[in-house]
Amino acid sequence: MIVQCPHCGKEIAVNGLGRPRLDIPLKNVYESLSRHCSVIAAANELGCSPAYIFGALKANGMKLKDVLKRCE
Q1: pLDDT digits (tens, 9 = 90+) for 32-63
Q2: From residue 36, how far is each of 1, 4, 25, 54, 69 by CA, in Å?
Protein backbone atom coordinates (compact mmCIF):
# COMPACT_ATOMS: atom_id res chain seq x y z
CA MET A 1 0.00 0.00 0.00
CA ILE A 2 1.28 3.45 -0.85
CA VAL A 3 0.52 6.33 1.53
CA GLN A 4 1.54 9.95 1.66
CA CYS A 5 3.99 10.99 4.39
CA PRO A 6 2.40 13.58 6.69
CA HIS A 7 5.76 15.35 7.23
CA CYS A 8 7.38 15.61 3.83
CA GLY A 9 4.49 14.81 1.47
CA LYS A 10 6.34 12.05 -0.42
CA GLU A 11 4.64 8.78 -1.23
CA ILE A 12 6.02 5.80 0.71
CA ALA A 13 5.21 2.09 0.59
CA VAL A 14 4.02 0.32 3.74
CA ASN A 15 3.29 -3.37 4.25
CA GLY A 16 -0.03 -2.87 5.99
CA LEU A 17 -1.70 -0.86 8.65
CA GLY A 18 -2.76 -2.35 11.99
CA ARG A 19 -2.51 -5.87 13.20
CA PRO A 20 -4.00 -8.81 11.30
CA ARG A 21 -7.38 -10.26 12.25
CA LEU A 22 -7.49 -13.38 14.42
CA ASP A 23 -10.10 -15.30 12.37
CA ILE A 24 -10.48 -18.16 14.83
CA PRO A 25 -13.02 -20.66 13.44
CA LEU A 26 -16.29 -20.96 15.39
CA LYS A 27 -15.69 -24.69 15.72
CA ASN A 28 -12.53 -24.05 17.73
CA VAL A 29 -14.30 -21.49 19.96
CA TYR A 30 -17.19 -23.89 20.57
CA GLU A 31 -14.94 -26.85 21.38
CA SER A 32 -12.77 -24.81 23.72
CA LEU A 33 -15.83 -23.49 25.58
CA SER A 34 -17.25 -27.00 25.85
CA ARG A 35 -13.97 -28.34 27.15
CA HIS A 36 -13.25 -25.63 29.73
CA CYS A 37 -16.78 -24.42 30.65
CA SER A 38 -15.25 -20.98 31.19
CA VAL A 39 -14.91 -18.03 28.85
CA ILE A 40 -11.65 -16.87 30.43
CA ALA A 41 -10.01 -20.31 30.22
CA ALA A 42 -11.16 -20.72 26.61
CA ALA A 43 -9.84 -17.27 25.71
CA ASN A 44 -6.46 -18.07 27.25
CA GLU A 45 -6.27 -21.33 25.31
CA LEU A 46 -7.18 -19.67 22.00
CA GLY A 47 -4.99 -16.62 22.57
CA CYS A 48 -7.79 -14.09 22.28
CA SER A 49 -9.91 -11.89 24.56
CA PRO A 50 -13.17 -12.97 26.19
CA ALA A 51 -14.88 -10.24 24.15
CA TYR A 52 -13.70 -11.96 20.95
CA ILE A 53 -15.47 -15.15 22.05
CA PHE A 54 -18.70 -13.28 22.80
CA GLY A 55 -18.45 -11.51 19.44
CA ALA A 56 -17.83 -14.74 17.52
CA LEU A 57 -20.85 -16.37 19.13
CA LYS A 58 -23.05 -13.32 18.50
CA ALA A 59 -22.00 -13.12 14.86
CA ASN A 60 -23.23 -16.69 14.39
CA GLY A 61 -26.50 -16.25 16.27
CA MET A 62 -25.43 -18.19 19.36
CA LYS A 63 -25.44 -17.25 23.03
CA LEU A 64 -23.02 -18.30 25.73
CA LYS A 65 -25.73 -19.94 27.83
CA ASP A 66 -26.60 -22.24 24.89
CA VAL A 67 -23.02 -23.46 24.68
CA LEU A 68 -22.50 -23.80 28.42
CA LYS A 69 -25.74 -25.77 29.00
CA ARG A 70 -23.73 -28.92 28.36
CA CYS A 71 -21.35 -28.09 31.21
CA GLU A 72 -23.96 -28.24 33.94
Answers
A1: 999 999 999 999 999 999 999 999 999 999 99
A2: 41, 48, 17, 15, 13
